[in-house]
Design brief:
477 residues, alpha+beta, 19% strand, elongated
Length: 477
């Protein structure tokens, strides 16, 4: 009987070795002659991983080093974990670096949860060691059950469906790569491995606490799924790889959408797009482009953006009103003005204008344009000119922005029309209406809604001088 169990254990070990070897080769996670740093905590997963790497060392001419971090959260026990790792590394002839970090102090200073603070400090140590040894690869011991937990957590709590893609097999890190070869195997496989190789790892009792979200999924959700299908970790890993490949492809294709978006080149980040052009692309690319735009605009990653914000954005694109606004987290505003949509954090003060304009003078407007008044015999009137006989107006003139109830008597039209309605007819964006200049005489009669509409009395006739107003915008100077 004991002989049968021994043969079974040998078979299990060989199967695990084959699975991990195959996974490494499939994804090119580790290559011959590389310098590899192993992140080792002293627990079953990382000790099995370190032992596995020592078996690859000679075959692939690898340089193996271990790094272990004491987070200082369990006092003497965590210190003993570090000492255990050092002893085992000495036994397996693996150089080992130990580090101590103050998670509690960092947690308080940065306003983080305990696990996130520990993770950030741990990876700071890993990065420092990668740089110090000019290492090619950092190996962590995430396994198939971790993949199940991650995907299920993302499905349950993620703000966006696209965020459900699991743990990546590898990613760039500290000038090299972070890889996870044990994603090919389950927690049960690892426990058999350490038992069969007489490895006696340290156990962290905090892993049994269900107050942490991940631990709750580990203790309650994963066992149920494994009861339904013992190979669920393999299915989850295949799904993760496929989702990441699909998302990578879609993101690449979405670059063609971004080519139609105008991004700011100044200190204030902004983006501008044409709705008509944007909607010519498939909806999947529109969605991805929307989030790529947000990735550009947000200085730090925000978890506050959800699929609800995405839906609000697409509702904005089909909104019947030509002018509308959408407010996103951290002060990002999306403004629609007819066909144009602008993303910006800048909330500009709307400068009002109310200045007297005397004949022979020029005034500068807030946007850099200029408006002048003169007597002239030149009666040629362009879009940016206004001409009339002096007896039609009461001087001095006034240049101002619109007010509630403003009306103008238009040329060729009986009666008057609201300035507001003219803006709408001319499709002037709402954001520009409050700064648009108009000219009145001293009695408040609107003579000219600059560049748009002119007062209805006739231009100067006959010979002699007339009053001429001229508007010169920044593009003309």
């Amino acid at each position: 009987m004991e002989e049968e169990i021994s043969l079974l254990n040998i078979g299990v070990n060989r199967l695990m070795d084959q699975l991990v070897h195959s996974f490494i080769k499939k994804h090119q996670l580790i290559r011959p002659n590389e310098t590899v740093i192993a992140a080792v905590s002293g627990g079953p997963d990382s000790m099995a991983m370190l032992h596995f790497l020592t078996k690859l060392r000679k075959e692939w001419s690898l340089t193996i080093m271990a790094v272990s971090v004491d987070h200082g959260l369990r006092g003497k026990e965590s210190q003993e974990d570090l000492e255990y790792v050092k002893r085992m590394c000495q036994e397996w002839d693996v150089p080992c670096t130990g580090a101590h970090v103050d998670v509690k102090a960092y947690k308080d200073s940065e306003g983080l949860g305990t696990q996130e603070a520990a993770r950030q400090l741990r990876y700071q140590v890993f990065e420092q060691q990668m740089n110090q040894w000019n290492a090619d690869v950092l190996v962590t011991a995430h396994h198939g059950d971790d993949q199940i937990e991650t995907i299920m957590m993302q499905m349950a709590t993620s703000a966006r469906p696209e965020a459900v893609k699991g743990i990546p097999v590898e990613r760039p890190f500290a000038g090299g790569r972070l890889v996870r070869p044990f994603l090919a195997v389950s927690k049960d496989d690892i426990e058999h491995y350490v038992a069969n190789h007489s490895i006696h790892p340290r156990l962290d009792p905090s892993n049994e606490e269900t107050t942490y979200q991940r631990n709750a999924f580990r203790k309650r959700v994963v066992p149920f799924l494994k009861e339904q299908n013992p190979k669920v970790h393999q299915h989850m890993q295949a799904m993760s790889e496929r989702m990441q490949e699909n998302q990578s492809y879609i993101s690449k294709q979405a670059e063609s959408v971004l080519e139609t978006v105008v991004f700011s080149s100044n200190d204030h980040k902004s983006a501008r797009l044409s709705i008509e052009t944007f909607k010519t692309f498939p909806l999947a690319l529109q969605r991805t482009a929307f989030h790529l735009i947000l990735n550009y605009l947000y200085i730090s990653k925000t978890e506050d953006i959800s699929y609800l914000h995405e839906e609000m954005f697409f509702d904005l694109l089909i909104e019947s009103k030509p002018n509308a606004e959408l407010h996103l987290p951290q002060g990002l505003t999306i403004v629609r003005a007819y066909d144009e949509v602008t993303f910006s954090f800048i909330k500009k003060e709307q400068p009002s204008i109310n200045e007297s304009l005397f004949i022979g003078e020029t005034i500068d407007l807030p946007d850099g344009a200029r408006l002048s008044a003169e007597w002239t015999e030149n009666r040629v009137e362009g879009t940016y000119d206004f001409i009339c006989d002096a007896h039609h107006v009461k001087l001095p003139l006034v240049v101002r922005t619109r007010r509630n109830g403003d009306r103008i008597r238009l040329r060729g039209m009986k009666g008057s029309k609201k300035v507001k309605d003219i803006f709408i007819d001319q499709k002037i964006p709402a954001a520009k209406r409050d700064t648009w200049p108009l000219v009145t005489d001293s009695q408040g009669k609107i003579l000219w809604l600059v560049g748009l509409k002119k007062c209805g009395f006739p231009e100067g006739e006959g010979s002699g001088e007339v009053l001429r107003l001229h508007y010169e915008n920044k593009a003309e100077t």
